[in-house]
Design goal:
Largest sheet: 6 strands, parallel
CATH class of the largest domain: Alpha Beta
Strand order of the largest sheet: 3-2-4-1-5-6
CATH architecture of the largest domain: 3-Layer(aba) Sandwich
Length: about 325
């Protein structure tokens, strides 16, 4: 029996992924499935560049704004939700169009993940409480005594990964490195057609800068105020949203708005650069779309989609 078809559209922030996914969904009867780790949260529609309500109404969209910002969405949890959304799409006679820039999510879906057992919530909470009490440097030193292999791999400033390494060895008695060395599991069985949008860097950076200015003009500051009112712990994934820290500093009176925007724009450009590097190295089998302007629809991707889908009808 042939595998069902699915389309994957990856690329850095502001590269035009969402626009292409929506256009393809309308053209080919697809369901757009979010693979962006920030856009799963219900807050910050503007700041995370989630599709507008009008776009979401134009074609089925799944996994956008489905979790509160206090929640933690691991790659495994997202993979399971995405797999269910894909199955729903196939059952409805539609093609799943997975779109996003979170490389770990995309890899989890297409290739699977290391079989790390679920970590009890109590163990996870204790790990983060210990990290908060000790501070990153001392916690990293403690981890180095317990799990020198993982400690050597981790930046002491990366709170989320430090806590993850600690909670895994605490709950399982084995280093996360040992689990990561096992064959991945849980990939979704599908015929994949993958695209990576890799526009010229200067053009991408210009779009990043312009988009962030529009975010501030159209409600980003109000979203940041609402996030501040939640008083979330700093290790919540939603707190990593691009621009959140800088605009929070402005609202606290620590930075002028212009400086906060400049810093946020620079952070966005840096993130886009890291994403470009990851996609070039990790998704070499994908169709690279590299000459388009990021604010223009690369419609030349439609013929290969049509050919791909026609082979499985």
């Amino acid at each position: 029996m042939s595998l069902p078809s699915a389309i994957l559209i990856a690329g850095p922030t502001a590269s035009g992924k969402s626009g292409l996914a929506l256009a393809a969904a309308k053209e080919f009867g697809g369901t757009v499935i979010n693979a962006d780790s920030m856009q799963v949260y219900s807050a910050m529609r503007v700041l995370t560049a989630r599709p507008s309500p009008e776009d979401e109404a134009a074609a089925p969209h799944r996994l956008y704004g489905i979790l509160p910002p206090s929640d933690i969405c691991s790659a495994a949890r997202w993979r399971d939700m995405a797999a269910a959304a894909m199955e729903e799409s196939w059952q409805a006679g539609r093609v799943p169009i997975v779109v996003g820039g979170t490389g770990l999510y995309l890899r989890a879906l297409a290739e699977g993940l290391s079989p790390v057992p679920d970590i009890p919530a109590g163990v996870r909470d204790r790990a983060r409480a210990l990290l908060s009490e000790m501070g990153n440097r001392d916690f990293h030193a403690l981890l180095a005594r317990r799990d020198p292999v993982m400690a050597a791999r981790l930046d002491p400033g990366n709170s989320q990964r430090l806590a993850r390494a600690w909670e895994v060895i605490e709950a399982t008695g084995r280093s996360l490195a040992d689990w990561q060395a096992l064959p991945p599991q849980g990939a979704v069985a599908a015929r994949w057609l993958a695209f990576t949008l890799l526009p010229p860097r200067d053009a991408l950076y210009a779009v990043c800068d312009g988009r962030f200015r529009r975010m501030v003009e159209t409600g980003a500051l109000e979203e940041v105020r609402a996030m501040m009112a939640l008083d979330l712990e700093s290790d919540r994934p939603a707190m990593k949203a691009l621009g959140l820290a800088e605009l929070t500093a402005h609202l606290r009176g620590e930075l002028p708005l212009a400086e906060a925007m400049d810093r946020a724009a620079q952070a966005t450009r840096n993130y886009a650069k890291r994403q470009m590097t990851w996609f070039r190295h990790q998704m070499r089998d994908a169709h690279a779309v590299s000459e388009h302007a990021p604010d223009r629809l690369p419609a030349h991707t439609f013929p290969p989609i049509e050919r791909f889908l026609s082979h499985n009808r």
